[in-house]
Amino acid sequence: MPASKKIATVASAELLMPEYWEDACKHLTKKDRVMKRLIPQFGDARLQSRGEAFITLARSIVGQQISVKAAQTVWERFAKLPRKMTPGNVLKLKVDDMRAAGLSARKVEYLVDLALHFDSGTVHAGAWEDWEDEAVIAELVAIRGIGRWTAEMFLIFHLMRPNILPLDDIGLINGISKNYFSGESVSRSDVREVAAAWAPYCSVATWYIWRSLDPLPIEY
């Protein structure tokens, strides 16, 4: 059974937080000199989930290939279009209105395809909590615009799986370069070597690496 079945606890009416965070921080502080330095810098801040699969995936699509700040701006404009952010309501939106919110034509296509998959019940969102990581990824990448990176963001931010290492994430690569290699370029092998000390909490370490580059907390 995936660890996520016992890691989520309600933090507010909207946000969920993983219960494993304290244990992860203790492990990382003990095992990794960079984490020992980074973790205290961010106090009680931690990974948060909105608890809504469709919204998490939609935010991931909106945020592809743009900065955290730009993604937040576009999302806020897009989120004002439907009365409520649901698959059915997204399918009712006009393409011109979505484009005017700052979405590219391709991202509009991706969001519509995502909404179609959820609206038709093609994806098994209600069962994902019980699925292994790779099974969830396999179903998600069948949706247009969702590659492995987006699926991994979903595993981290929605299902709050503790041990995801997104090797294609530019922020992770840049952060490891900055924090471990004095700014020198790094390979996937370098990333895996650094992350060996992080397991079984690669998601948590990745989150702190992101924060070391951008003080804005990343949310989907």
UniProtKB/TrEMBL annotation:
Catalyzed chemical reaction(s): Hydrolysis of alkylated DNA, releasing 3-methyladenine, 3-methylguanine, 7-methylguanine and 7-methyladenine
SUPFAM superfamilies, per the entry: DNA-glycosylase (SSF48150)
Example of a GO biological process term: DNA alkylation repair
Superkingdom of origin: Bacteria
Keyword Cell division belongs to the record: no
Residues covered by the HhH-GPD domain: 62-214
Alphabetical list of InterPro entries matching this protein: Alkylbase_DNA_Glycosylase/TA (IPR051912), DNA_glycosylase (IPR011257), HhH-GPD_domain (IPR003265)
Swiss-Prot/TrEMBL keywords: DNA damage, DNA repair
EC number: 3.2.2.21
GO cellular component terms given for this protein: cytoplasm; protein-DNA complex
Listed GO MF terms: alkylated DNA binding; DNA-3-methyladenine glycosylase activity; DNA-7-methylguanine glycosylase activity
PANTHER family recorded: DNA-3-METHYLADENINE GLYCOSYLASE
Family the entry assigns: Belongs to the alkylbase DNA glycosidase AlkA family.
Protein name according to UniProt: DNA-3-methyladenine glycosylase II
Species assigned in the record: Rhodoferax sediminis
